[in-house]
Structure formats: C-alpha cells, structure tokens
Amino acid sequence: MKNSKSTKPIDVTIVGGGMITNDLILPSIYHLQRTGVVGNINICALNNSPLKVLKENQDILEAFPGQDFTAYPSLCEPANKNFLQLYKEVIAKMQPRQAVIVAVPDQLHYEVVMEALRNNQNILCVKPLVLKYGQTAEIEKIAFKKGIFIGVEYHKRFDSRSLIAKRSYKLGHFGEFIMGEAKLIEPYFYRFSNFQNWFTTENTDPFVYVGCHYVDLVYFITGLKPVEVSVSGIKGKFPNGKEGFMWSNGRVKYENGALLSVINGLGYPDEGAGSNEQCLSMFFEGKGKNGLVKHDDQFRGVSHCYLEGIGCAGSHFNYINPDFFRLVPWEGPGYKPTGYGFDSVSATINTIYQIENEVMSLSEDKALKRRRKIIKEVDEKGIIATPANSYINELIIESARISILNDGYPVKIIYGNKPHVELRKK
Ligand SMILES: NC(=O)c1ccc[n+]([C@@H]2O[C@H](COP(=O)([O-])OP(=O)(O)OC[C@H]3O[C@@H](n4cnc5c(N)ncnc54)[C@H](O)[C@@H]3O)[C@@H](O)[C@H]2O)c1
Asked: What angle is formed at CA 129 by the lines to CA 281 and CA 164, rounded to 5 degrees?
C-alpha cells in the first residue's frame, strides 16, 4: 500500500484534539499515513483528556488497526492540567517544512499559524483561517516570502455538487447570480460540548462559525466579491452559564448588487433526523430567462434507522450524508475514509507532500522559486482555499463580528490597495 517511489512522507503535528480532529482530521491523516503520504503524527491539545478520547475511539481503532499518534501532553499527566504553550515546543521539535494542522478554537488560529510559520512549517488550517483581514494579509506575505504552503479547510468546496456548480457558472449555464438563501443549523447538543468554553459572544457566533462555509461557497461558485454584510444575533446561555450567540441571521450584498441571506444556529433538534439542517438556493438572471441552483445538503437520499440509539445525539432515525465523511470497507485493512471532507484534507496535505518531494533535490534558491510557483498556481486554480484566494472570508468575518456586536448594523467592505471594513455611515 505504501508508495513504492522513493518519496519522503510528511510528518504532521495536529494542534487541537477536539471534535474536528476526531470526526475528520485524524482519520484522514491516518489514511494518508498508510498510503505513504504522511509519516509521524503528533497531536497537541490543551490537556490530555481529548487525546485519551481520541486514542480510545473505537471507530478509529477499528478503521486504522496498528496506527497511533504521539500525545502532547502525555497521557501520564493529570487530566485537568493545562499546557497552553506546549504546542510551541512540539512544533519547534519538528523537522522544517513538514505540516502543522491548526484545529484549535477560531480565536487561537492566528497565534498557532504564526508559530508554525516561524518554524518554517507548511500549514493546513481549519476554517476560518483567522478573524481579521489584516492577519490573513500578513500571513500570506510571510508564507510566500518563505515559500510555505497554507491551505484552509473549507471542505464544502470539495463537494462534487459545488464543483459542478462552479464549472457550470463559469460556462455561463445559469446567468448572473442575483438572489440566494443559505442555511446551516448545527445540532443543539453542541451547546453541551467544549463549545461552551469558547463559543462566547466576544469570540464568535454561528454566522462566523458555519455561515462562512456558504459565503465562501457562493464566492467559490461565482467569483463575486461581497461588499456589505449585516448580521443580527440572538443570545442565549450555555449550560456552564457563559453567554453566546445561539442564532444568527445575516445578509451579504455583492459587488453586482446580488443578495444572499444566511441563517445559522446551534439549534437543530437532537431528536430530529438531522444531524443538522443545511441548504443553498441561488437564483440567476439570464437574457429573457433565469437560472437556478438548489442544493439540499441535509437530506441526500439516505436514511438509517438503528436498533439502538447510536445515531446523532443518541437518536435512532437519521438522515445520512454519504458525501461528507464516512468510513467504508475497502481493499486494505480496517476501513477507509471517503467523501469531500477527506478530499479536502488530502488536497492540502498532498500538495505539501508534492512540493516538498519536488524541491528535495534542488538548490535552496531554485527550491524557493519552485515553491512560490506552485503556491501561485494553487492560488489561481482556486480549488484549495488559500490566504490569497479566500481572503474575502476574513473580510466577511471581520465585518460580521462588527455588525453582530452593533445590533446588525451594516458593515461595508472596501477593496483596493488596502482592503478594509467599516460601519456604514448613517
Ligand atoms: N465544518 C468545519 O469546517 C468545522 C467543523 C468543526 C470545527 N471546525 C473548526 O475547528 C476548530 C476547532 O473546533 P472543534 O469543534 O474541534 O473545537 P473543540 O472545542 O472540540 O476542540 C478544540 C481543541 O483545541 C484544543 N486547544 C485549545 N487551546 C489549545 C492550546 N493552547 N494548545 C493546544 N490545543 C489547544 C483543546 O484542547 C481542544 O482539543 C474551530 O476553529 C472550528 O471553527 C470546523
């Protein structure tokens, strides 16, 4: 199964051992390890309790027999002892030009990405890359100077329905995007998870957390830039008493005047078939007739009813998304991951693997030129989200945060030499 060519696998450090690492990143990285793309795997979390959960996850153990990762902090440490800065030591110990996967809460992405850059590590960052446009511009500049590759994990881009829509839009099959509606309501039980410690009003909100997926998708499909954002939120209390926005209702205006409404929340009923609710409708103006794209991203035609309550939040009857991420039988040992979640992680890690193997025998000078050429090609291709081709997301997020904290007042996005955002004048 391993690559027979004399290529070198990439060592990976995942910073953050929470839900996204458990559900998507670790299984994807394990599969890439057994196909020879990834070498050693470290996972560093704030404390070792999520790492113990990852090590004992039965689905992962059955899918990837014999595979393991090094836990930081070690499982011998007390479970409640926090190691805020340990990720810095773990990254410093890596060989340069490997890969750091950033999977910590949104507001910590900037400092972990900067630490990886300081240590000359390629990066895969879960969305959103950062929360401010100025930070993404800074990151892009440093990474390009050093020839470091950064991919941002916007996996909806890899859903074949998004790729089909992107191609058809470019071919002029629909007309010009003019009016749209998107929805992503995450499960209610999220309120009981580690979210209650960081998903608080001052850090984030449902629009920033998941609305950004659909805003990214509309840009991915159409290439239209957003110019104004307004987001209203509804606050609520997490079980630990902290206050967060549980719901959000956003409106994005585009450079051609098009409008997109986006509703988000941590509130899809645990008893529902879910596991969440999500969809996108886009209407387009043509000449004398109109076009339409309609994606039901929740019910994809597969339902399961289990004998025991093993479904989402202990439910029995579930709508299954066979397209995002599933572990399925394959010709090798255990199970393999399939779906656009895996494709998305694999696209960035494979790009890093290809870059590093391609430049291995080149002089430093030639290697840097080659790295930069590949980075530019990926930026221009626009499939993997990179700081250069997905910076509109940081402008959107920055605007959305200002708007939601100002009762939904519109925030303008101004492009040009120095893109920035400002509250619309009254
Ligand atoms: N659909 C998606 O693309 C998607 C889905 C879920 C999460 N995410 C993103 O993934 C990120 C993490 O979300 P999650 O759901 O896994 O959160 P989570 O709360 O379940 O996990 C966060 C992890 O970060 C770790 N952490 C916190 N501070 C740290 C530090 N100083 N050093 C090392 N580790 C530290 C915690 O120990 C924990 O393991 C967020 O940015 C979120 O937006 C993306």
From this structure: 35
Residue 275: its pLDDT value, please?
Answer: 87
Give just the sign of the alpha carbon dihedral 299, 179, 162, 413.
negative
Using CA atoms, how far apart are residues 209 and 207, in angstroms rounded to an integer?
Answer: 5
| pLDDT, tens digit (0-9, with 9 covering 90-100), for 140-180 | 999 999 999 999 999 999 999 999 999 999 999 999 999 99
Q: What is the pLDDT of residue 319?
A: 95
Q: Sign (positive/negative) of CA torsion 310, 102, 215, 426?
A: positive
Q: Report the pLDDT averaged over residues 262-289.
A: 96
Report pTM.
0.95
| Ligand 1 atom showing the smallest separation from residue 204 Cα | 43
Q: Over the Cα atoms of the chain, what is R_g?
A: 21
- Look up tokens 């992962």; give the residue: 60
Helix spans in 230-388 (H): 340-359, 364-381
Helix (H, G, I), strand (E, B) or coil at 250: strand
Mean pLDDT of 231-245: 97
Angstrom distance (rounded) from CA 100 to CA 139: 14
Q: Taking the CB of residue 289, how many other CB atoms lie within 10 A of it?
A: 8
Closest alpha carbon to 356 in 375, 379, 381, 342: 375
Angle between helices 212-222 and 160-170 (to 10 degrees): 40
Q: Please return the burial class of 239, using the count of CB atoms within 10 Å of its CB with bins 0-12, 13-18 and 19+.
A: exposed
Please identify, by atom number, the ligand 1 atom nearest to the C-alpha of residue 195: 19
CA angle (263 as vertex; 259, 269 as ends), nearest 5: 160
The verdict on the CB of residue 194 being under 6 Å from ligand 1 is: yes
Nearest CA to ligand 1 atom 28: 46
Indicate left, alpha or beta for 18 from its phi (over 0: left) and psi (-120 to 50: alpha).
beta
Neighbours of 277 (CB within 10 A): 23
Better-predicted residue by pLDDT, 315 or 118: 118
Concatenating the DSSP letter of every residue in 223-248 gives -PPEEEEEEEEEEEE-TTS-EEEEEE
Q: How confident is the model at residue 204 (pLDDT cuts 50, 70, 90)?
A: very high
User: Is residue 50 within 6 Å of ligand 1 at its C-beta?
Assistant: yes
Strands 259-268 and 176-187: parallel
Q: Which residues contact 78 (CB under 8 A, 6 or more apart)?
A: none
Cis previous bond, 27, omega within 30? no
- Extract the tokens encoding 376: 């530019």
Helix (H, G, I), strand (E, B) or coil at 26: helix
Residue nearest to atom 9 of ligand 1 (CA): 126
